[in-house]
Every structure is written in structure tokens, then in C-alpha cells.
Design brief:
This protein is flat. The N and C termini lie far apart (about 65 Å). Helix 3 packs antiparallel against helix 4. The protein is built from four helices and no strands. The protein is mainly α.
Length: about 130
């Protein structure tokens, strides 16, 4: 019985080693370049910097809008929020969400839009500081 277990273990080890050899050879034949972690981090940082620059431009453009133009955008956001409320109500009807969760989300969105309007803030996203 022990000999059979030992032979099974040896066979499994041999198959495993043979399989690893094939993977190594295939990987070497692809001629792909790999990136170091510092290169990946640098790329991510440069993408974030470019995104932050775009957000800053958008915020500056937002500041140059008239009150009427800003109100047009806030009205569209309010219409979008009303559509989301209908969606949440339907999800409550179909028992996908609890009514309390739906009500809490709607209250949060309403309060957020109210605060944006009162302060004249840029409605899309804030840059990380």
C-alpha cells in the first residue's frame, strides 16, 4: 500500500515537473516584454496626473459659466435623479431592494444636489487633494 502511494506521488511529481517545463518554454517563446512595478506605478501616476489636469480644466470652465447655464445643468441632474428614483422604486416593487435602503439613497442624492446648487459647485467629480 505504501509503495502504491509512493509511486502515485512520484508519478504526480513527474507530471507536474513536465508540465512546468512546457509552460516555461512557451512563455519564453512569446517574446513579450514585462514591466517592473515601478514602471507600472509611474504609468499609473502619469495617467492620474493627466486626469487631474482634465478635471481642473473642467472646474475652471464650470466657474466661467453663468448662473443660468449652471442651473440648466442642475435641472438635467435633477431629471436624472428623478429617473434614478423611479428605477429604485421599481427595484423595491420587485423586492430587489428594501424600501428603507431606497429611501436612504434618494435622500442622499437629493441632499447632494441641494448642496451642489447652494454652493454653485462643479457637479461631476472632485479631484483628490
Amino acid at each position: 500500500m505504501n509503495k502504491m502511494k509512493l509511486c502515485g506521488l512520484a508519478l504526480a511529481g513527474f507530471i507536474g515537473l513536465t508540465g512546468l517545463g512546457t509552460i516555461t518554454v512557451n512563455a519564453a517563446d512569446t517574446n513579450t516584454e514585462s514591466a517592473t512595478l515601478s514602471e507600472v506605478k509611474h504609468d499609473k501616476d502619469s495617467k492620474e496626473a493627466a486626469f487631474d489636469e482634465k478635471i481642473q480644466k473642467a472646474e475652471n470652465a464650470w466657474k466661467s459659466l453663468t448662473k443660468e447655464q449652471k442651473e440648466d445643468i442642475y435641472a438635467l441632474l435633477e431629471a436624472e435623479m428623478e429617473d434614478e428614483a423611479k428605477l429604485l422604486d421599481k427595484m423595491v416593487e420587485y423586492k430587489v431592494l428594501d424600501k428603507s435602503d431606497s429611501d436612504r439613497f434618494k435622500a442622499f442624492k437629493t441632499q447632494k444636489l441641494k448642496k451642489l446648487r447652494e454652493n454653485g459647485e462643479f457637479p461631476l467629480m472632485k479631484r483628490k487633494k
